[in-house]
Amino acid sequence: QKEVEQNSGPLSVPEGAIASLNCTYSDRGSQSFFWYRQYSGKSPELIMSIYSNGDKEDGRFTAQLNKASQYVSLLIRDSQPSDSATYLCAVFYPGTGFQKLVFGTGTRLLVSP
Amino acid sequence: KAGVTQTPRYLIKTRGQQVTLSCSPISGHRSVSWYQQTPGQGLQFLFEYFSETQRNKGNFPGRFSGRQFSNSRSEMNVSTLELGDSALYLCASTLSPGPLNEQFFGPGTRLTVL
């Protein structure tokens, strides 16, 4: 089982719609969760971090965390063509003596005008 | 505040050569992590440095090594390059190691091995 799983997509949504991106993780001890956006040919850019169960909102972005279900999601409201990118979910893996940030393979989002 | 910088941005090498990549973290950040990104494997953790010490290492062969200097700048070295080493190498900095500190990425170095 992969440590962090995401649907590779592409997820296609029309402009103005809500895009919902999902991520599951395998380690119940994971404490922190991050969403990065990566445009083609560019490096990942941090969008959101979330550490406790529930929702966290920042502008058009809402991150949702459910530790019991080992599930993290990112909602993008009023999607714009400029949101078209690959979204990477990252989970801090708290291994004994070996901690690291583990990334999913990303979901490609396409927002059509 | 300046972001993470990486040099060079692009490199072309041939098999068997070695390469050194450089990363300067955000001012005040003392932890640097390196990642390899390929289309097939995604983002893979290479190693993390803090206070000039390697804290963690990913599952890569010994040809991949790194170091950190007293000013927190970091370098990674790949010896005896193989075709499969062609990738985007990313450096990320954070204030210090730990689950609560966000990592910020540099622009990356795109390495092509011919």
Architecture blueprint of SSEs:
The complex is a heterodimer of chains A (113) and B (114).
Chain A: E1 4-5, E2 11-14, E3 19-25, E4 33-38, E5 45-50, E6 54-58, E7 61-66, E8 71-76, E9 85-95, E10 98-103, E11 107-112
Parallel strand pairs in A: 2-11
Antiparallel strand pairs in A: 1-3, 3-8, 4-5, 4-9, 6-7, 7-8, 9-10, 9-11
Chain B: E1 5-7, E2 10-13, E3 19-24, E4 31-38, E5 42-50, E6 53-57, E7 64-68, E8 74-78, E9 87-94, E10 104-105, E11 109-113
Parallel strand pairs in B: 2-11
Antiparallel strand pairs in B: 1-3, 3-8, 4-5, 4-9, 5-6, 7-8, 9-10, 9-11
Task: Describe this structure as you would to a colleague.
The complex is a heterodimer of chains A (113) and B (114). With 113 residues, chain A is mostly beta strands. Helix content of chain A is 0%, strand content 58%. In chain A, strands 2, 4, 5, 9, 10 and 11 form a 6-stranded mixed sheet that branches. Chain A has a 5-stranded antiparallel sheet with strand order 1-3-8-7-6, with no helix packed on it. In chain A, β6 (54-58) and β7 (61-66) form a beta hairpin. The model of chain A has no long low-confidence stretch (mean pLDDT 93). Chain B is mainly β. Chain B starts with a strand and ends with a strand. The mean pLDDT of chain B is 95. Chains A and B meet through β5, β9 and β10 of A and β5, β9 and β10 of B.
Spell out the key features of this protein.
heterodimer; A: 113 residues; mainly beta; five-stranded antiparallel β-sheet; 11 strands; globular; B: 114 residues; seven-stranded mixed β-sheet; four-stranded antiparallel β-sheet; 53% strand
